[in-house]
């Protein structure tokens, strides 16, 4: 009667890689290193925005409207002293410092990407586990997911954000909804594959309860794919937020975000391209870094890709 632990033990052709070997592969993967370094830099910029920013990003200065990068302005104080201030990235149509707005905008964009990735994975994981394991619920759940995926993500996001009051929470919810079906389909496919494995069937025959079966045997198989999927969701969230803000249905204009900065500068783009150029560079670098990191994680964590 002591054979139960043997029945529950996974049967694998190759030993599972240790944490040290995975870490070694991550540190030797060029994509992971490049993407990770860029993301660390962007994260530090977001965290240190109060120290890196030169002025209040919402401060309006009518005298310094639409100034090009490098514009210097001398400000005289009441005591007769004067100081020269340099706008490193120029100013927008309201005289706000583009540099400070770009630095503070990193906080909004990165916060949205992290929140959307975590929430989408958490919700999609639960729904995907239920759909893949409970056969009677598989059909109805997947038809709902197929219906959501049939609608273009940006249109679905615009429809969702229109139901709520404009703000950060509404934008996050609007971006989460189109991402959930993708996570559900990924988790469901993993569950359908894993549940046919001999060690899972042996655990079921041994009377293992469903929660324990999920946590011990099925859930670990979803970790690596979900980590990779989370990076791509984060990159997509940054782009969708910028699109929503560019269209005027995202973050309120008074809150600096990369999408807002570009939206406000699009009318004078030909004359003052710096209003779109600098936030666009930060946006492009961040999205590219996240995608590169995701590719590197996939190559490292996926056994098939790692074998190549």
Automatic annotation (TrEMBL):
GO terms for biological process: transmembrane transport. Its main location: membrane. Keywords: Cell membrane, Membrane, Transmembrane, Transmembrane helix, Transport. Gene3D superfamilies: MetI-like. The keyword Transmembrane helix applies. It is a multi-pass membrane protein. This is ABC transporter permease. Residues 110-294 form the ABC transmembrane type-1 domain. It comes from the Bacteria. Signal peptide: none annotated. The keyword Magnesium does not apply. It is found in: Cell membrane. The chain crosses the membrane at residues 26-49, 108-134, 154-177, 226-251, 272-294. InterPro entries: BP-dependent_transpt_permease, MetI-like, MetI-like_sf, OppC_N.
């Amino acid at each position: 009667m002591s054979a139960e632990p043997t029945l529950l033990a996974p049967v694998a052709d190759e030993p599972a890689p240790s944490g040290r070997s995975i870490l070694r592969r991550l540190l030797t993967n060029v994509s992971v290193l490049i993407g990770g370094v860029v993301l660390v830099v962007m994260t530090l910029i977001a965290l240190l925005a109060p120290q890196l920013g030169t002025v209040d990003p919402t401060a309006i200065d009518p005298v310094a409207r639409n100034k090009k990068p490098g514009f210097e302005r001398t400000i005289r104080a009441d005591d007769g002293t004067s100081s020269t201030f340099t706008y490193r990235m120029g100013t927008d149509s309201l005289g706000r410092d583009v540099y400070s707005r770009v630095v503070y905008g990193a906080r909004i964009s990165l916060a949205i990407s992290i929140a959307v990735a975590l929430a989408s994975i958490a919700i999609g994981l639960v729904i995907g586990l239920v759909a893949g394991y409970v056969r009677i619920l598989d059909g109805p759940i997947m038809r709902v997911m197929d219906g959501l995926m049939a609608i273009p993500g940006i249109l679905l996001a615009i429809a969702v954000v229109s139901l709520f009051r404009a703000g950060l929470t509404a934008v996050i919810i609007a971006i989460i909804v189109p991402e959930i079906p993708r996570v559900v389909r990924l988790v469901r496919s993993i569950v359908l594959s894993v549940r046919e494995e001999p060690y899972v069937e042996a655990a079921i025959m041994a009377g293992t309860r469903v929660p324990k079966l999920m946590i011990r045997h099925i859930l670990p198989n979803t970790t690596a794919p979900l980590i990779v999927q989370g990076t791509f969701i984060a990159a997509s969230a940054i782009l969708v937020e910028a699109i929503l803000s560019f269209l005027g249905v995202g973050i309120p204009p008074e809150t600096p975000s990369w999408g807002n900065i570009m939206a406000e500068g699009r009318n004078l783009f030909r004359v003052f391209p710096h209003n779109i150029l600098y936030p666009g560079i930060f946006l492009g670098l961040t999205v590219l870094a996240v995608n590169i990191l995701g590719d590197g994680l996939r190559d490292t964590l996926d056994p098939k890709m790692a074998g190549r």
